[in-house]
Each structure stands twice: as C-alpha cells, then as structure tokens.
Specification:
Blueprint lengths: L1 H5 L14 H12 L3 H27 L5 E2 L4 E7 L5 E7 L4 E2 L5
Antiparallel strand pairs: 1-4, 2-3
C-alpha cells in the first residue's frame, strides 16, 4: 500500500542513474532490504543458466557436419560415332556421402 502511494505520478520520476548512483543504491539495498542478497544471487544464477542454454543451443544448431563425396554423383557415358567422333552425355548415379573427412 505504501509503495503504491509513493509510486504515483509526481512522487517518483523515472530518470537514468547518475555515475555512482547505481552502485550506492545497490549497496544500500543490500544493507536495508531483507533477502536482497539471495534474490540477486538467484537472479545471477538464472541469467548464467539461460546464457549457457543459449550458447549450447547455438552450438548444436550452428555445428555443421563435414561431409565429402567419395563418388561423383554425375558420371559420363561415351559412345563412338561414325569416323573419329565420340559422343558423351552425363548419367546420374546414386551417390554416397562420407561422414569422415578425407585429407
């Protein structure tokens, strides 16, 4: 009830902290507000856990599997024409991926 009384328009103005005010306000809250330290610790732990989960999710999504063809997916068939003419045309074949990196 007291908080709503003083948070009405005109009592508390929203403004940015001046240099040093944030730290002194946090220090005063630690001294005067019961359970503030535990709340800050829980909040820091939650932020850390969320950051780790985001990083883990990003690493699993962005991790690419290195693959390489060990057999060309397109082959060629050559036929002998009349005289010294040869005709080549591409032929698709089933290709295989290899999960191991070949160096």
């Amino acid at each position: 009830v007291t908080a709503t009384k003083y948070q009405r328009h005109g009592y508390v103005e929203k403004r940015a902290f001046l240099p040093g005010e944030r730290r002194s306000a946090a220090r005063e809250m630690k001294r005067s507000v019961k359970g503030y330290r535990e709340l800050r610790q829980e909040l820091a732990d939650s932020r850390k856990m969320i950051r780790e989960q985001e990083q883990e999710r990003r690493s699993t999504v962005e991790r690419t599997i290195q693959t390489s063809f060990y057999k060309s997916p397109v082959g060629t068939r050559t036929q002998k024409g009349s005289g010294a003419i040869f005709y080549s045309h591409p032929v698709g074949r089933t290709s295989h991926f290899s999960a191991t990196k070949i160096i």
